[in-house]
Automatic annotation (TrEMBL):
Top-level taxon in the UniProt lineage: Bacteria
Gene Ontology process terms (BP): lysyl-tRNA aminoacylation
UniProt protein name: Lysine--tRNA ligase
The keyword Protease is assigned to this record: no
Gene symbol of the encoding locus: lysS
Root EC class: ligase
């Protein structure tokens, strides 16, 4: 079914079944269910015979020649994804669920009048539909066309599907396919492959970090103070304490508390939530990796993210990624590009931390970059760089030497007070991750968070709040450290050339 066009029947939302005009196929399937119950047969038994997985049958009897039969009896089970009923011989294809090593094995079963008898064959034809789960017991054979099969001597219904599977002859609706991912997974191998690809990437990330002696921990999702990033949070209320809370927008501040406490190499793979826009690269809930490394800095943490990404590429089989913009070579040089010189080269005019705001506004106008009149010079520089330079950075590039407002939690540059030690990793014109030498001076950190809280009080919904407990932790003393954050969804998008709604199995969607 790979590449087939699929149409997904869409249920009517927010309607009780009793008042809905039931489609004909659903009505017929419900009547079959009722008939089974009336005859004293269970349409949803608690268990059915199953001695072998479909994959195990394919592996164990792969040697059979065309037309060869065995006396080996097995019981197999799976979902019916193809069915062809003729007079005395019926064929069906069963499909089992995906695993780490494959996207869902299929196996043919055959029911003949001579093997199962007239009554059982008639029941099969009358009761079994596409989408049903069945158990089939019989001998393993190779058909006259060379198809490995189970020739049934008995069968039993395992679960009656009341909705038909998507059909393969109408145009695929991306919206419906994402809304009904369960149906998408049944009929499209590409959807199942995406699940396995994402699992392989996250498994590789953990293996890389464990190999380097990092400890995985979990931090709170519900937080009293939102911080660790500049983003608009989701608000909620905790009845037990009668207090307002937010869903976390980052993992950073609690992971740093762990480093203060002595967990010197720590990470978390966790869901975070930002109440912002939704498009092909942004989702309000997504998965982040954050890593903190005591005795490290922006360079050591950059080496770590490079190792993480190349190891993930190895897990998928190649360090070369084909994209519409060209082939990304992860084995090539990972460049380092300073923000101000990079922007200067693009606009063919020297831009420095001391360039006037009037000059930057004029540049934005000349290059048709939309800006907010309230933005300061540093924000204008970052916006110009993001619009004019980043899209052309196809090969892996660490963009570094940012102005301070870019990362309020990053350390001041060791040799230039107008900069901070921070980078963004750009691959394929998209930001994949960010990292920096962490700010551990509690006095400077208090000043920066105070400025953020004042901006929040003035109406900036993305500004961080003053987190007194985090500052208290820093006052206990934190070792020098490097830290990184990487969006897992963005990484999967890089390797698959898919949008974020494809990489997230069940993305948040606008209600119908």
């Amino acid at each position: 079914m790979v590449g087939a066009r699929v149409h997904y029947p869409c249920p009517v939302p927010n309607q009780p079944p009793a008042v809905v005009d039931v489609p004909e196929q659903i009505r017929v399937r419900r009547e079959k269910r009722a008939g089974l119950l009336a005859a004293g047969r269970e349409p949803y038994p608690v268990s059915v015979p199953r001695t072998h997985a479909l994959r195990a049958v394919r592996e164990q009897w792969a040697h059979l020649e065309t037309g060869e039969e065995t006396s080996d009896v097995v019981s197999v089970a799976g979902r019916v994804v193809f069915i062809r009923n003729t007079g005395k011989l019926c064929f069906a294809t069963l499909q089992e669920g995906l695993s780490q090593s494959d996207s869902g094995t299929r196996l043919q079963v055959m029911l003949s009048l001579a093997e199962v008898g007239a009554e059982s064959l008639a029941d099969w034809k009358a009761e079994v539909d596409l989408g049903d789960f069945v158990s089939v017991t019989g001998r393993v054979i190779s058909s006259r066309r060379g198809e490995l099969s189970v020739l049934a001597s008995d069968w039993v219904l395992a679960s009656k599907a009341l909705r038909p599977l998507p059909t393969l002859h109408n145009e695929l609706s991306d919206e419906t396919r994402v809304r009904q991912r369960y149906a998408d997974l049944v009929v499209r191998e590409a959807a199942r492959d995406m699940v396995r690809t994402r699992a392989a990437i996250t498994r590789s990330i953990r293996e890389t970090l464990h190999r380097d002696d990092y400890v995985e921990i979990e931090t709170p999702v519900l937080q009293l103070v939102h911080g660790g990033a500049q983003a608009r949070p989701f608000h909620t209320h905790l009845n037990a304490f009668d207090t307002d809370m937010t869903l976390r927008i980052a993992l950073e501040l609690f992971l740093k508390r762990a480093v203060v406490g002595g967990v010197e190499r720590v990470y978390e793979l966790g869901r975070i939530f930002r109440n912002e826009g939704i498009d092909s690269t942004h989702s309000p809930e997504f998965t982040m990796l954050e890593v903190y490394q005591a005795w490290g800095d922006q360079r050591t943490i950059a080496a770590l993210i490079q190792q993480i990404i190349t190891d993930a590429a190895d897990a998928l089989g190649s360090r070369q990624i084909s994209t519409p913009a060209g082939v990304i070579d992860l084995d090539g040089e990972w460049a380092w590009l300073p923000v101000y010189p990079g922007l200067s080269a693009r606009v063919e005019e020297e831009i420095t931390p001391r360039t006037s705001i009037e000059t930057l506004r004029a540049l934005a106008k000349r290059h048709e970059v939309e800006v907010d009149p309230a933005w300061g010079a540093e924000k204008l520089v970052m916006e110009l760089f993001g619009e004019l330079v980043e899209p052309d950075l196809i090969q892996p590039t660490f963009v570094y030497d940012y102005p301070p407002s870019a990362q309020p939690l990053a350390r001041p540059h060791r040799s230039d007070p107008d900069l901070i030690e921070a980078w963004d990793l750009i691959i394929g014109g998209e930001e994949i991750g960010t990292g920096f030498s962490e700010l551990i001076d509690p006095v400077i950190q208090r000043d920066r968070l105070t400025a953020q809280s004042l901006a929040a009080a003035a109406g900036d919904e993305e500004a961080m709040q003053l987190d007194e407990d985090f500052l208290a932790a820093l006052e206990f003393g934190a070792p020098p450290m490097g830290g990184l954050g990487m969006g897992i969804d963005r990484l999967v998008m890089l390797f698959t050339n898919a949008g974020i709604r494809e990489t997230i199995l069940f993305p948040l969607l606008k209600p119908l």
